[in-house]
Amino acid sequence: MIGWEDVYKVVVAMAPLYFALILGFGSVRWWHIFTPEQCGAINRFVCFFTLPLFTFEFTAHVDPFEWNYRFIAADAISKLIIVVVLAFWAKCSSKGSYSWSITSFSLCTLTNSLVVGVPLMKAMYGPMAVDLVVQSSVVQAIVWLTVLLFVLEFRRTGLDISSGSSNDTRVQSVEQGGKDLDGTNESTLASPSYYYWSLMKGVWLKLGMNPNSYAVFVGIAWAFIANRWHIELPSIMEGSVLIMSKAGTGTAMFSMGIFMALQEKFVACGTSLAIIGMILRFTAGPAAMAIGSIAVGLHGDVLRVAIIQAALPQSITSFIYAKEYGLHAEVLSTAVIFGMMVSLPVLIAYFAVLEFVH
């Protein structure tokens, strides 16, 4: 049972995040330390340096040979359910869109497992729950954040090609009915297959230059090697990674504070979208996880942990990616900030209700 001491531990884990957030907000809104251009540079620093090193550090220290693969399968099924529903909505609904499907996927599935999940789950169900939450976080980094990164890059590269900013294509020729500026017929350039391969080439080239796309794979590869042959990362490498990775969560929250300060309103996305985001965060993910868990036969405390960890607050990484790729960052920032505020009573309510589930 959760006591006041356990609640205090969770609050202690969350308070430093808001401290970093307030510092970022104040540095722009109150003290005018950074210009908008410098704010963009700070977000890119977080995205391309502290975040991938943070991801590598926690991934490299897990033991994949001890994972609960039935739990991981339930998580995969739940994510696929969300993907199918969003794809159907985007294709069949007049209000559906590819861009909002990406954002909705983030809101429904991507959680802040390590900062909030670990202390709360330890209080609820003990070390077993902590192991499951860490497993979920690693799989999220390996699979789902990588998928998110790919579709965001795919979207941005497609927009670049369509606007004529990409060097893999000559859009002006296509817009002129297959005629180049010098009158040469360029209808090969205008074919769908050429556009597709130009798009994919651009996506893979950009992902190859983004350390987030491979940091997690290097980390999990090292985890397999280290646990198979019982070796440790050389201390000089460990120290080099730690000095940057320890700043990962703090600098991400600092960047979010900066982003908030640049907006005209505190709830930048508006009240309606904020409410929708909270509903998706705390209901859609757990509901899909319940279906996936039942499908693979989870029961008891493992089932309870699976559902509750799916209701953890929004992933900070999802905001950093949204800001970098210019897709509904205001929605994700609101989800992170208010999600952490309301998560404790919501998660305790889930805990109380699930005590009646056998």
Structure, explained:
It is a single chain. Helix 3 packs antiparallel against helix 4. It is globular, with a radius of gyration of 22 Å. The longest helix is centred in the middle third of the chain and has 36 residues. The chain has a single domain, classed as Na+/H+ antiporter like fold. About 5% of the residues have low confidence. It has 358 residues and is mainly α.
- Figure out the total of helices: 15
Query: What's the helical proportion of residues?
Result: over 70%
Structural Rg: 22 Å
CATH architecture: Up-down Bundle
Task: Label the overall shape.
Answer: globular
Largest β-sheet summary = none
Strand content is: under 5%
Low-confidence stretches: 169-187
